[in-house]
Design brief:
Number of helices: 6
Order of helices and strands: HHHHHH
Shape: elongated
Radius of gyration: 38 Å
Strand content: under 5%
Oligomer: single chain
């Protein structure tokens, strides 16, 4: 019996501890699974935050967003007459830009028509020297018109909705937007003058 006692004790210990290993393993697996879920949720949160940030950046470049943003800022002005004036200036700047773009497109169309007539006249000329110099001048004029057209198209895509900082700086914000518009239109006008001169050179 004494010889059997150690064997009985060992067997009892084995039976006692054996069920615990799966339990410990299960708890460990549960911990790993929970940790993975937490990491997954954190990653989803980071992804959603990045997506929202990118979306916000894109919205800021959207004209409708700018218009609504301006209205929201003006709505909290203490002096609503100042707010109305700022809104009117903002609207007028965009209207002026669109009107000038339309006028520029018409002027470019007219230049192209004149240049086409010059080219038609040159094609029936029998003077080879005149044809050679005329062809070069027409090519230069066409290039100048294309450059001007690209600038006019780009100008038409610009937006001059006021970017208001505070109520106290709204006058300065409006002046800044007006100066930007005038500077941009000047660039377009200078390009048109150059194209017009190129057409004039082709007529000679």
């Amino acid at each position: 019996m004494k010889h059997l006692l150690p064997v009985i004790v060992t067997a009892a210990l084995v039976l006692f501890f054996t069920p615990l290993y799966p339990v410990f393993a299960e708890k460990n697996n549960n911990s790993v699974t929970a940790l993975e879920k937490i990491k997954s949720r954190q990653q989803e949160l980071v992804t959603k935050t990045s997506t929202r940030s990118a979306s916000l950046v894109n919205r800021k470049d959207d004209k409708e967003f700018k218009v609504n943003d301006l209205k929201e800022k003006l709505s909290v002005f203490r002096d609503q007459r100042k707010a109305e004036s700022a809104q009117r200036i903002s609207d007028n700047l965009n209207k002026i830009n669109q009107k000038r773009v339309e006028q520029s497109n018409k002027r470019i169309t007219r230049l192209s028509e004149i240049l086409n007539m010059v080219q038609t006249r040159m094609q029936v000329s029998t003077d080879s020297a005149q044809v050679a110099s005329g062809s070069a001048a027409i090519a230069d004029a066409k290039k100048a018109i294309e450059i001007t057209q690209s600038k006019v198209t780009a100008q038409g895509q610009k937006d001059y909705t006021l970017k208001i900082s505070t109520e106290s700086t709204v006058k300065g914000d409006a002046t800044s937007a007006k100066q930007t518009l005038l500077a941009d239109l000047k660039v377009v006008e200078e390009s048109f003058i150059a194209a017009k001169q190129s057409v004039a050179n082709a007529i000679k």
